[in-house]
What we know:
mainly alpha; about 10% strand
Amino acid sequence: MQVPLYQAKAEFFRMLGHxxxxxxxxxxxxxxxxxxxxxAAIDVEASNLSQQLAVLRRSGIVISIRDGATVSYALAGGxxxxxxxxxxxxxxxxxxxxxxxxxxxxxVYPQTDCVGDATGR
Length: 121
């Protein structure tokens, strides 16, 4: 039985739903990087990075490249970089909207901290 497209999409986004995986993908947008450079740029244990790279590799989003003892990773295609750029645009719009709302709240209620009432409750 074939998985419905919406379920496959949900599984895809769940696979992306880890901060280390997103950071790896962001770093790989500029080109292939050896594992040692990824470790230096991401504050995680080597075993954790290895697990996250394995998830990305199994999904087909990244590929590994071996050159002697050095293993590097690269994006499997440009679509992932496009997706990350789209996510950045969406987040920018959402956060801009939130900051505009916050500014409006501060104008309407200048004596409060926008968390509680004027007494801080």
